[in-house]
Write a structure and sequence with these properties.
single chain; globular; 2 strands; mainly alpha; 160 residues; two-stranded antiparallel sheet
Length: 160
């Protein structure tokens, strides 16, 4: 565990923490991104307390908030209720990710759309139904690290 941004953060891997989580926290630690920072820290708090479904939900919210902030900052038009896929589409349409990555575009878009949003939809975004859904610890770690990686990419592209 480490005390970071007023929160105790669970550290499962020193490397991942130092190379992904900390740089993302530093990028989010800007007044412009305060809502996304709050959600990202809530995700880590839920993870630390074993509230895995809530951790995944907050991680996706932080990712979506980051995109909404970047979209608003650039004056791009988007519905306030846009899904992650629509937010990603807006970022791609406005070339937030450099067009020189066009050969990688399809893979990158698929990763952004089917990674974190899919984990959230399958494991924490809807009711369990007939059978309880057990969210494994490793999947929550993956969601948190994926959210951090996505957020880092988007903020760095936004600032470039």
């Amino acid at each position: 565990y480490q005390y970071q941004n007023g929160q105790i953060i669970r550290i499962d891997s020193q490397f991942t923490h130092s190379e992904i989580i900390l740089p993302t926290l530093q990028l989010l630690n800007d007044q412009e991104f305060q809502p996304a920072l709050d959600e990202f820290l809530k995700a880590h708090e839920h993870y630390r307390h074993g509230n895995y479904e809530s951790a995944i939900n907050e991680a996706l919210k932080a990712f979506e908030s980051t995109m909404k902030i970047i979209i608003a900052s650039n004056g791009w038009i988007i519905s306030p209720n846009a899904t992650a896929a629509k937010l990603i589409q807006t970022c791609m349409d406005n070339q937030l990710i450099p067009p020189t990555l066009s050969s990688h575009f399809t893979g990158l878009r698929t990763t952004l759309e089917s990674g974190l949003p899919t984990v959230r939809n399958k494991y924490s975004g809807h009711g369990d139904g007939v059978h309880s859904i057990n969210v494994p610890d490793y999947l929550v770690r993956y969601a948190l690290n994926l959210a951090a990686t996505n957020i880092m990419l988007l903020i760095q592209a936004h600032r470039a």
